[in-house]
Specification:
The complex is a heterodimer of chains A (about 180) and B (about 110). Chain A is an alpha+beta fold and about 180 residues long. In chain A, a hairpin with a 6-residue loop joins strand 2 and strand 3. Chain B has five helices and two strands; from the N terminus they run ααααββα. In chain B, helix 1 runs antiparallel to helix 4. Chain B starts with a helix and ends with a helix. Classes of the chains: A alpha+beta (about 180), B mainly alpha (about 110).
Chain lengths: ~180, ~110
Amino acid sequence: MTSTATLDTSSATANTTQVYRIFIKATPQAIWDAITKPEWTQRFGYGLKDEYELRPRGKYRGHANDGMIAMGMSGVIVDGEVIEADPPHKLVMTWRMAIDPTLAQEGFTRLTYEIVEGRGGVSRLSIIHDLAGRPGHAAMVAGDQQGPGANGGWLWILSDLKTLLESGAQMSPDAQLHPHD
Amino acid sequence: MHDDDLVFKALADPTRRFLLDRLFTRDGRTLTELESELEMTRFGVMKHLRVLEDAGLVVTRKQGREKLHFLNPVPIRLIHDRWIDKFTERRVSALTDLKRQLEEDSA
C-alpha cells in the first residue's frame, strides 16, 4: 500500500496549493514595492502595515492599520518569516493569520510571489500559496468565509492591487507618502 | 497581455468549462488525470488546456517531474468587476438567490 499512500499525499498537496496570476500595467519594481512597503500595503486589500526584513530568516509582520486600531484591533494581524527575497522578482515566505487563535494554531503556510516583466510595460504577478494541512487558511484566502456579494481573499486583494497600480500610481508622490491624508 | 476576448472565447466551449469545473473541484492536476475524465484524445485535451492557458484561466506549475494544472480565477473576477459588478450585481444576486432557493425547495 506504500504506493497508494504516496499518491494520496501528492494529490492532497496539489489540491491545497492555490495559484493566482494577474497581469498589471506596472514595472516589477512598482509591484514589488506595493507588496513589501508599508506605505503601499496600506492602500490595497486589507490594508495592513506590512513590515519585512527582506533577507532569509528575516521577520515579516503585518500590523493593524490606523482604521483597525480605531476599531479596537491592534498588534500583529499576520506574521511569518522570509525564506527567499530576490527583489523585484521573487519573494518566498511563511505566512500565518496570527490574530485568530484557531488559524494561528494551524501553523504557517508557504507563500510565493513571482513577478515577471512582460511586453508593453505589463508585468505578470503570480501567487503560489501552499496551504497543505491548513484548511482554515485555505478557506480564508479563497474568500470562502465571505457572504454572497462580499469580497475577500486573494481574488479581491489582487484585483484591488491592479486597480491601485494602474490608476492610483499616477497620484502625486506626496499622496503616496501619506495615503490617509 | 490579457484580453477579455480570450477569456470569453475560452469559456464558450463546454469541454473547457468542464475542465475548469474539474479543477475547481480539485486543483493541481496532471494532463493524465484530466484526460481520464473525458472521452477525448490526449491531443484534444491538450489543445483545450492550451486555450485555457492562453486566456490565463489555467496556470501550469512544474512539481518534480509532473506538470500540474491550476485554475486561475483572476480573469473571471476581472470580467466580473468590469461587466457584472458595475451594472447588474444586485439583480444577478437576487436571481441567483432565487434560483438557489427554488432548487433547494424542489430537492
